Amino acid sequence: VRNVGLLLVALLALHFVFLxxxxxxxxxxxxxxxxxxxxxxxxxxxxxxxxxxxxxKPLFRGICIILLLSFATIALETANPPMPxxxxxAIVGASIITGxxxxxxxxxxxxxxxxxxxxxxxxxxxxxxxxxxxxxxxASNKFxxxxxxxxHSHLWRDAGDPDLPFNPNSFAPPGIAHDVSVYLADxxxxxxxxxxxxxxxxxxxxxxxxxxxxxxxxxxxxxxxxRDRVVSGERVGPNMLVAGKILATTGGHSAEVGxxxxxxxxxxxxxxxxxxxxxxxxxxxxxxxxxxxxxxxEAGELQMTFDELQAITDEAHRRNFLVTVHAESTQxxxxxxxxxxxxxxxxxxLDDEMxxxxxxxxxxxxxxxxxxxxxxxxxxxxxxxxxxxENPALTVIGRNYEMVADSLITGFRQAVDNGILVGLxxxxxxxxxxxxxxxxxxxxxxxxxxxxxxxHMATLATxxxxxxxxxxxxxxxxxxxxxxxxxxDPREDLSLIGKPLIVSVxxxxxxxxx
Length: 514
Ligand SMILES: [Zn+2]
Prior knowledge:
4-stranded parallel sheet; 15 helices; 17 strands; 39% helix; globular; binds zinc ion
């Protein structure tokens, strides 16, 4: 009995120490419990407490230590905070940019938010009386805009330095580190670690101006559970739409962390499996990608047959779910459009037939297809460090990036010029979770849109693109209170969006600066 107990203690202690090395934020309670457990072990070893009351029996002592270590592990997992409580709130005196395409601004406005999280009224302050019992937030001389919507994120991943251009070094080429992380995703400890990382990144995302995130490609289905915890107020985070695992073909982009299928029958099965996991949409990798490429030219290669693409869109659309397709070449985008993709992630240069299909796509769920160009990745350039140049695996990744980027930016420009619906998706996880606002800068840079238009694209247009415009994306009566209070006019300085004074997500008020 004693040896088994010791073994359990050793295993639990190891488990805890391992978690500590991976989880960025540790609760004080977890550390106290852990230290207490270790203190008992130490005293026991010294024999000091061998005759003390309660701790006299070795079996009892062992159980105490095991319980304390278990509690420490649980406390560690719950280190992330719940949402604050919700009240009826009036935000008064601000200039309100509503998010609509016509660049509507209410000069000195009031937003009333009730405790269910809905906007009950919005308009000029002189026309709106604040009802009794409302908490009043004075936002005179401040600006309000809808919270940003990021249609393309990977919260389970940590991104590199947000200020650097595309850096091939940030990708682990195939090797032990990569294999270990894929293996860990299927273990209990690994999933706790990934969940904790999702929570940290969700909070960073929210505090830097994003009130809705679409997680399209998780390493497991851990995003589903997190979405539910945010909805119930148990965790802090933006509103979430989740795709769970990416659907990929054998050897295809993201196959190592995806749900792998081959052939139309297995494709349908993969969609059905995903829907059973309670995802909100289906994400597939129609062409190769950059991060895990091993050959030059692999990034835009077709990796699904047309039959496979069709099987997926048909199966998802029959159940009323959207399908978004990763595509990084003209032919890849064309086939995705023809098969009825609802969104294209990344994109490439378009021809007239493709432009027409975006705007009127009979095989898509809603009759049109939209584009998320992920300029936060592709708007920069490769940082050719010595390490990237000398490591053949990293050179392939960097070169593939260069082969895709120009065509992608051409496609983005064509989309805007031709009135295709374009939304914000940064590929955060590869791009920074905290600099989503930079995507607006790229909208302005590469398509010559005004900052007002960029704000519309990043909010209401993106809401339309991902099918949630009836509930969020603009500041209007009846919608969710997903909005930011900014120090000054974001049309003059877009970076202000990344430093909101107040973030309201579904009526939960956060003050990131404090
Ligand atoms: Zn992605």
